[in-house]
Write the structure tokens for this entry.
Amino acid sequence: MNRHLLSAADLSVEDALRVLDTAEEMSRVADAPVRKLPTLRGRTVVNLFFEDSTRTRISFEAAAKRLSADVINFSAKGSSVSKGESLKDTALTLEAMGADAVVIRHSASGAPHRLAHAGWLHGSVINAGDGTHEHPTQALLDSFTMRRHLRNGKGDLAGVRVAIVGDVLHSRVARSNVLLLATLGASVTLVAPPTLLPVGVEKWPCSISYDLDSVITKVDVVMALRVQLERMSDAFFPSAREYSRRFGLDTVRLARLPDGAIVMHPGPMNRGLEISAEAADGLRSVIVEQVANGVSVRMAVLYLLLAGAPLTDIDYKTLGPS
Amino acid sequence: MGSTQGRMVLDEGDLSRALTRIAHQILERNKGSSGLLLLGIPTRGVQLANRLADLISRIEGFDIPVGTLDVTLHRDDLRLRPSRTLTPTLIPVGGLEGRIVVLVDDVLFSGRTIRAALDAIGDIGRPSAVQLAVLIDRGHRQLPIRADYVGKNLPTAMHEAVKVSLNEIDGEDRVTISEVSGE
């Protein structure tokens, strides 16, 4: 695995399966009487959040704490960023404090890449969502959840049919999921109005449909995306009601899903817009489980990136017996 | 890397007799199999634990619980090597609480794996006692740890490698010792 996790595209099949398999083991810690491992004792993980987030930040914090790392939470509000401090100066401050990993969420696509490759930090950089670009740990926890439900928690996702529905244009979750699911062998269909598909989407490793009703009878997973009203400056669809009627997950559509199919949503949900309350809370919904799985997957990522030595630093002569 | 050949120290028969003896010693020391639970340390400790459980259940007439314990996350040398892949930890139903846990590993060397195992057990439950069974004790301990049951004490030099091969994984039962080339 690389030193950083910036994009789902950086993960080979072997890397992705290694994260998922490790996450399966990490999930056992949640059931143990002592929900803590000493693995990252003495390491410092900084949560650097320039954008609001509830579940991702808490999830990373819980994951780092279960592995005994020290966690420093940094949010742009109430920090020197609101006084105009640059990303570089913030990074140099974190480096001076000895951050071994920086988990970054930023509204600018590519900010994690800059942080990782500018030479400001010695530690690992984990992308926790950058602009409309990527959110790789969300894709990993989604694949983990699918694998548990559809493949008994083992192997890849070959043959699994996934529909990702809604605001693909503004969604980093959709991009990361398409890339990772393609790596794991699943077939993905994006379903959205043409106005909510990004330019160049025809080159993504997936198919595209504008009609949810024709797709929904042939999938094992249907994932609703949040309509990101805060990122919308233009009118992308005529009205919320029309969007909901054509692309919303409701009881009628859910009834047409094949047996055993699951309903996912990365959260936070706009109940009544892209997903109805009945669909969100129904028996097929694994949305709450996604959150729980997020902790296991992030523990796996932190373990794989941080616990071992960088390959270049290993001196086999001084190792001694294992 | 050690050579694939090396000098044979235990053959199939020796290995089987050693395990049979350990099974009897475990029963003798604990006055039967009540409350016993075997935990194998991956990789080859798992197969050895299964074989010991078979032998004990054959002698006693009923099955005893057997599980596996991955100690990777409790190791003290994680920072010295690339991140390792985890293997499953499977604790039998009922947990470790109040049980006599017998840890099973193939080779006892520095003792660091067993130290990690003891820490891992502490996070899972509180057994009434923990004992250690190993097929080979090759010496060179770096921690104050000893085995309760030993298949064979094998004096070795640091530069030698001990390789335990088991039918389930390697297609044959044998223990060999060889020179490590290089250092």
